Structure formats: structure tokens, C-alpha cells
Amino acid sequence: MNFRRLGRSGLRISEIAYGNWLTHGSQVEEDAALACVAAALDAGITTFDTADVYAGTRAETVLGKALAGVPRDSYELFTKVYWPTGEGANDRGLSRKHIMASCEASLRRLGTDHVDLYQAHRYDYETPLVETLRAFDDLLRQGKALYIGVSEWKASEIAEALSLADELGFDRLVSNQPQYNLLWRVIEDEVVPLCEREGVGQIVFSPIAQGVLTGKYPPGQPPPAGSRGTDTKGGADMISRWLSDDVLTRVQQLSPLAEQAGLSMAQLAVAWVLQNSNVSAAIVGASRPEQVHDNVQAAGITLDADLLTAIDEALGDSVERDPAKTQSPNPRP
Ligand SMILES: NC(=O)c1ccc[n+]([C@@H]2O[C@H](COP(=O)([O-])OP(=O)(O)OC[C@H]3O[C@@H](n4cnc5c(N)ncnc54)[C@H](OP(=O)(O)O)[C@@H]3O)[C@@H](O)[C@H]2O)c1
Asked: Is the CB of 214 under 6 A from ligand 1?
């Protein structure tokens, strides 16, 4: 495993991280979840990402159980706050009240007294930014979080948070967690240049486009049994955006390119996001340990310029690059 700095902070994280959205507490049984975390640890992954909202809060409980007994200093635990975790008017968003309550609940479920990174899961258009940043800074002073970050914020929103933190003497954001993969490159024009200048690292999600970039969804055929494409608990809805015949046909053209490079398609996809030096880690998901074993082998791979060009030619206009596609819900849910 290779390690990278989380933005300009002193924290080192594994360049391949493991995340448990849609899987733990939902699509996969607990023994498979525990086996995936064990496989990740065996493969040298030290960085784990979850969120209060995943599987209606069950995902944090499963991850806490999977990491119980592992020395706390030997791994980095990331979680998030923003999406609704209950029916109440304050069970959501980035108000001081919800941040404090949600962080306590996350720590309880995860079985720890601190998380290494606490992230705003989206931008909250209903809470003054200074209220959110002061609450985050208080969590840092209390030792409940060691670093703070955001997820899917626009460049202008990240810039505003950095300048407010500087003005008020708060610790700065060290990371952003955007979607980034071969098919979804919307951070490249605005978010990445700003973050490179400001020392904010990207911890990118869905690097394999939820499994689509493995090539296991051939065009014109039903999704393979047991895949996210068949997961009626939420996965099938989430992945459906990628399952058009045009995208799937183009993805199939990556297969010979991966083969020539001596990589599986999943490894090619993960290695591709790691070529971007502003990326601190690629957060992969997995529903079974063999996938973890496959994906971690992308660590440390360099893709040559000819291969990068051939990939772009194969994918053509199925690649989304519009920076306006970085969005948080407005109004807030
Ligand atoms: N901040 C945010 O808003 C946000 C949003 C989404 C995700 N995330 C984070 O990013 C993490 C990863 O997201 P993701 O799960 O969408 O990532 P992904 O790595 O693109 O997709 C993971 C899924 O692809 C399939 N897969 C993975 N490796 C495979 C392999 N080698 N061969 C065949 N199939 C393979 C598995 O699904 P099946 O086996 O079921 O097909 C697996 O669950 C999440 O867990 C979460 O921590 C954050």
C-alpha cells in the first residue's frame, strides 16, 4: 500500500480507502461486511469511510464492530454529517445542534472517542456557514474529530469556508470528498485547481462508477446476479444513472486496454483516479473480499500517456466534465 498526505495536513492515509455506503447494514450480510474489512486491513488499507446516514445509521455500527479490537492508532476513521438521520426538524443539515448530536451518535455507533476526519456531506444552504465552521472547530478542540473536510462542495463554497476559517482563526478544511472516475470528471476544471492552491486533498468516491467500470454490466443485458444493479434496497436506483447502452458499450472498449496494461478493469479505473496528484485517496466499495483484493492492486501503478489517450478516445463524449454538476440540494432535504 502507498500512503499520501491528506491535503496539506500531516495526516497520512492509504491511497486506497474502503467505504461502506450501500453495502454494510444493507446489501450485504454482516459476515460479508466483516470479511471485507478484514480483507482491507490485510491488504494494507488503513483508511475507512462511512457516514451517519448510511443504511439508516446501521453502517457505522457494522464498521465499529468490524474494527473492534484493531488498535485505534493503526487506522483512520472518517465519517460525515448532513443527510437526514431521523424525522425531526433538526435531525439533518449542518446546524450546530445537529452537528453536535450527530457526532456523539456516530462516535457511539463506531465505538470510539474520536474520528480522524469529520466531513460535511453536502453544503447546507439553510445554515450560516460560520455556524457550521465554528461547530466543527469546537469538535476539533474537544478532540472528537482530528481534521475536518467537506463532500461535493463547489469550488466557490470551499473558497468561502477557507477564507472564513482564516479570518476567524479556525482550523482549515483539509479535504473534499467528490465523485470522481473515468466517466465523471466534473472536479477537474474548478475544484481541483482551487484545492491544489489551497492544500485541500480530494478523497474521491465511486472510483469504479459503482462497479460499472469493471465491465460486468454488458450493454443490453440484465445486471449480473448479486451485483449492485440488482440490489433492491437502494443500490439499483443509485447505479441506474450509469446503465445506458451507450455508456456500457464504451466501457466495454476499456477491456482490451486494461488487458494490454496487465490490469483488471477495476484496477485500471482505480489507478486512473490516483494519477491526479490532488487525489489523496480513492475510496473503493466492495461487497465481497475478492473485490478488495482486486482493487488494492491499483496502488502505486503509473499509467502511461498513450494509455491515457486511448482511454479518452474509447470513452469519447460519455465523459461528464461540467463543473456545474457539483451540486448540493437546495432547498435542503
Ligand atoms: N460523499 C458522498 O456523497 C459519497 C457518495 C457515494 C460514495 N461515497 C463513499 O465512497 C465509497 C465507495 O463508493 P462506491 O461503493 O460507489 O464505490 P465503487 O468502488 O465505485 O463501487 C463499489 C461497488 O462496485 C462493485 N465492485 C467493486 N470492486 C469490484 C471488483 N473488483 N469486481 C467487481 N465488482 C466490483 C461492488 O458492487 P457489487 O458487488 O454489488 O456489484 C462494490 O460495492 C462509499 O462506500 C462511501 O464511503 C461517498
From this structure: yes
Give the tens place of pLDDT for each residue, 304-332.
999 999 999 999 999 999 999 999 999 99
CA 286 – CA 23 distance, rounded (Å): 8
Choose the residue to mutate in 231, 274, 284, 288 for probing ligand 1, maximizing ligand atoms within 8 Å of C-beta: 284
Beta strands 145-150 and 175-176, pairing class: parallel
Q: How far is CA 131 from CA 70, 120, 134, in A?
A: 35, 13, 5
CB neighbour burial string for 138-176, b if at least 16 within 10 angstroms, e if fewer: bbbeeebbbbbbbbbbbbebbbebbebbeeeebbbbbbb
The predicted-structure confidence for 116-153, as pLDDT tens digits, reads as follows: 999 999 999 999 999 999 999 999 999 999 999 999 99
* Arithmetic mean of pLDDT, 51-80: 96
Nearest CA to ligand 1 atom 8: 205
Q: Positive or negative, the Cα torsion across 97, 99, 103, 106?
A: positive
Cell of 130: 460560520
Rounded CA gap, 55 and 76, in Å? Answer: 21
CA 319 to chain centre: 19
- Summary mean pLDDT of the chain: 97
Considering only CA atoms, which of 256, 248, 295, 302 is closest in space to residue 275?
Answer: 302
Q: CA dist 18 to 23, 120, 183, 284, 317, Å?
A: 11, 19, 20, 5, 30
- What's the whole-model pTM score? 0.97
Residue 72 alpha carbon to ligand 1 centre in Å? 25
Residues 252 and 219 sit within 8 Å (Cβ to Cβ): yes
Burial class (CB in 10 A: 0-12, 13-18, 19+), 252: middle
- How confident is the model over 175-212, as pLDDT tens digits? 999 999 999 999 999 999 999 999 999 999 999 999 99
- Cell numbers at residue 218, please? 454488458
Classify the phi-psi angles of 24: left when phi > 0, otherwise alpha if psi is within -120 to 50, otherwise beta.
beta
Q: Beta strands 12-14 and 3-5: pairing type?
A: antiparallel
> At 27, which amino acid appears?
Q
